[in-house]
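Help wanted!
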Amino acid sequence: MTSVLYDLPGPRARVRNRALGVLATIGIIALAGFIAYRFWATGQFESRKWEWLLYKDLQLQLVDALGATIRAFVVGALLALAFGFLFAVARLSEHAWLRAPAYAVVEFFRAIPLVVMIFFLFYAAPQAGLQLGVFWSLVVGLTLYNGSVLAEVIRAGVQSVPRGQREAAFALGLRKNQVMRSVLLPQAVRAMLPAIVSQLVVLLKDTALGFLITYQELLFEARYLGSLAEFGRPIIPTALVIGAIYISLCVVLSLFASYLEGRKRRQRLSEPTLPVLDTTNRDGAAAIPS
Amino acid sequence: MIELLVDNRDLFLTGFRNTILLFLLAGIGALVVGTLLAAMRVSPVPVLRLLGGGYVNIFRNTPLTLVFFFFAFAYPRLDLLDVSFFTRAVLALIVYTAAFVCEVVRSGINTVDVGQAEASRALGLTFTQTLTTIVVPQAIRSVVPPLTSVLNALLKNTTVAAGFAVAEAGQITPTLSERGASVLIGMVWIAIGFLILVIPLTATQRTLEKRWSVAR
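Answered by r_m:
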């Protein structure tokens, strides 16, 4: 690996680096050892605290909780994408009466903390006669916040499409609507797909906020399992298990995002030098309908 | 509407004071820890690179609520130092935000062309000189705008502490409803409060992006 910061190490630097490496290894082993010792000293490794994993009822509950998290994620993601596209297009509109409110809405929901939004929907909205319930308070909150962020991402994507694309599309006689739908948006989505998926990781992580309004998802389940007296209140084991589930879910999505990122970069490298040829043949679709 | 704010000004003042305090303490902590992690990730020592990378990958993929959950419910069970919940909230925010700061700083350093450092070494500058006069001044331009957005997220994330009972701005609502005041209007005021806090940050970010993006 070459770096801006240092040359290839010489003999003295190699020795020093190796010594640092050994020191760091010792340090991390000491830290891990200390944590393991604290776990052991406070009885976290007792079999009683892990027994709950063996009960079928509790396993099924865990699956239910996972389902609840995924349900909130899927509904939230779909709505947020729809919201994002709608407001991205509105923000790019030629009509100021459409552009201005869309701008205000997007900026507003990006500035308000999601927790405040969710609390508002759950605790305050019923006072104004809007009963959303736990699930929809969470999902609507997720939609408004992440949808606004996605709107910005998609708008940036549309603006990153080379100007010639738009001009060429108008020159071919397409209408505004068609230019946006069949020329600009598809290319914007391709360019922004990694960023969109990263935002969906954020959305997935944010479903955990449902815990704060007692939506019965994974974290809520962890709290419940962690308070069971018959297993010695295994809050640390449950936090570890639930943490592992969350991290694996998010890592899978993140890996997908970086896979898309890598694919995008490779495609750019292999793109032909003639951009005109490239755009007409991009999806293997016929450029001229027969 | 204004009466509610005036009548409960103690509540709003403590709330927003704690929000700002959480933000400042966690922000400084996260900047320090994140920069250290970034230094680890670009260091010539493979073990340190691995550690930094592992940390970032784990905490970027962990919900903040889970980190708070750990510090709120699991930490006391380990019989470690008995610290107040406010301190634990700061710790949770630092642990989480540091991963994001690390990524921003690292990618900032990576945007500096290798040729720059090579040229400066060819001119006979030492490592420290290369770092302080060549690399950092250039890296900082691409670091600061995304860093403000990380801090912006941190400011909003302080509200998660409310769910775990730190008396900051998000916590105002339950107390209001105990006092029999309108939660709806209280919420509107909280939202306005956050808008006032967030908008200057966003504006700074936009200005910096515009001013510094043309530099290279």
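OP: Thanks! One thing I noticed: The radius of gyration of chain B is 21 Å.
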